[in-house]
Amino acid sequence: MIEPAELRKRLLALGFDVARFASIPARDDGGALPEVNALRKWLDAGYQADMHWIERGFAKRASPTLVLSEAGSVIMLGVNYFQGAAGASSDSQHPRWARYALYSDYHDTIKPALEKAGRVLEETLGITSADYRYYVDTGPVLERAWASRAGAGFAGKNAMLVSRDFGNWLFLAAIFVRAKIKADEPLPARSHCGKCTRCIDACPTGAIVSPGTVDSRLCISYQTIENKGAIPRGLRAKIGARIYGCDACAEACPWNRFAQASRGLLLEARPEIGQLSLGELLALTPESFAAHFRKTAIKRIKLAGLLRNACIVAGNTGARAAEHLPQLARLAAHESPLVRAHAVWAVQRIADGEQATRLLAEARNAEKDASVLDEHGAQP
Ligand code: B12
Ligand code: SF4
Ligand code: SF4
């Protein structure tokens, strides 16, 4: 059994804020583990929305040895991305971004450190690169369940891995390794949430359907990032000023009093994104989109996805919304039907009936797409 002290020290020296170890049972009977049962129930309830890749990767999520045969341990790494008040943008003119979005894509900036971690494992454990496999976010790994088993934090009622040292603001990464490293203890089994329900109460859409369980179909993070199509009408007003992702259930958590400013060693802050005004976002073109969001995770939702979200925010800006009407009327004739549909919704939400009809007349007459025509006919 390998003692983890030296390994932990070297992993932390690479810039990770957390390095914890969990054992993989020798006879890998993953289906019997409580978290795997929770995942099965979650999938059966349809809470994954159209993220069908989670179901496809179920067997691997349940059994790490299908990811790496003879894997004996999981190393869970955490990167603190808390930037204090600076990371929590938003006023009436600046849409609200999830904190993690105000960085260059963390998948890309954390990966080189994982490569270095691999070399540390080769040196300290005497193994080769065939004996470990690492992932950040996108692998078939139940990262929160493993992080909680490794004692990196606890599973909060908001479904987040909540750290007693960093609150809700850790990116997670995992390394499966063919070695037996002495496991860290999980936190004591008592509930760390107690009677608190702040996250559930703070969720604008009621997406936390029971403690620890999020219905993605209702979750603003899913709708604004993962959903490539139209955002359900019933959710649009509840999205408020959130243009990309949602931190409401994370922000609400009292354990964030332990949050510390990120050392930023494995991250590249992009605070200027939070400074973009709603007007600038509604005016984005393929060129300006590429320039502003180069190397960020945001670029994956593409220009049409971001304009869709910006239209919703514009429709929700209340007293000052009228100033965006000319831009929204222009977007009602955008080349993307997705953008047109949401621009129509926003115009109808802001302007009174007659004004909306006038502003949208030209776009409506030229419209051929059934889903957009439906928005033209629909009441907001
Ligand atoms: C799919 C996904 C989403 C989906 C679904 C979220 C969800 N709650 O499952 C959507 C798009 C909605 C999403 C949103 C967000 N995500 Co996300 N997401 C993932 C991803 C890729 C898979 C998660 C998954 O398997 N979900 C299925 C559910 C069932 O599993 P789970 O949440 O891991 O829950 C486990 C435990 O909580 C436990 N459990 C759950 N319910 C119960 C109930 C009981 C009684 C028990 C005992 C246990 C239990 O068992 C579950 C299975 O092991 C992970 C990366 C990864 N590979 O793990 C990132 C990940 C979870 N996301 C992350 C982040 C940051 C977010 C957002 C904050 C982004 C944002 N600001 O907009 C939001 C937060 C929403 C929320 N409250 O969960 C981080 C979380 C870091 C952390 N400290 O927890 C991760 C780990 C990515 C990373 N590498 O850092 N995400
Ligand atoms: S991320 Fe937002 S919408 Fe999703 S569960 Fe948390 S508070 Fe609710
Ligand atoms: S807000 Fe309260 S209930 Fe939710 S995760 Fe934090 S401590 Fe738990």
How would you characterize the overall build of this protein?
The chain is an alpha+beta fold and 380 residues long. Helix content is 40%, strand content 11%. The chain has 18 helices and 10 strands. The protein has helices spanning 5-13, 34-44, 52-56, 58-62, 64-67, 106-125, 143-149, 198-202, 220-226, 233-236, 248-251, 278-282, 286-293, 302-315, 325-331, 337-350, 353-366, 370-377; strands at 18-23, 73-80, 96-97, 132-135, 154-155, 161-162, 170-177, 208-210, 213-214, 242-244. The strands form 4 sheets. Strands 1-2-7-4 form a 4-stranded antiparallel β-sheet, with helices on both faces. A hairpin with a 2-residue loop joins strand 8 (208-210) and strand 9 (213-214). The protein starts with a helix and ends with a helix. The protein binds cobalamin and iron/sulfur cluster (2 copies). One iron/sulfur cluster is lined by residues 158, 203-205, 207-208, 214, 219-221, 246, 248-249. Residues 34-35, 38-39, 42, 51, 54, 98, 100, 136-137, 139, 141-145, 155, 158-161, 168, 170-172, 212-214, 216, 219, 221-222, 226, 245-247, 249-250 line the site of cobalamin. Keywords: 4Fe-4S, Cytoplasm, Iron, Iron-sulfur, Metal-binding, Oxidoreductase, Queuosine biosynthesis, tRNA processing. Pfam families: Fer4_16, QueG_DUF1730. One of its GO terms (molecular function) is 4 iron, 4 sulfur cluster binding. Residues 184-213 form the 4Fe-4S ferredoxin-type domain.
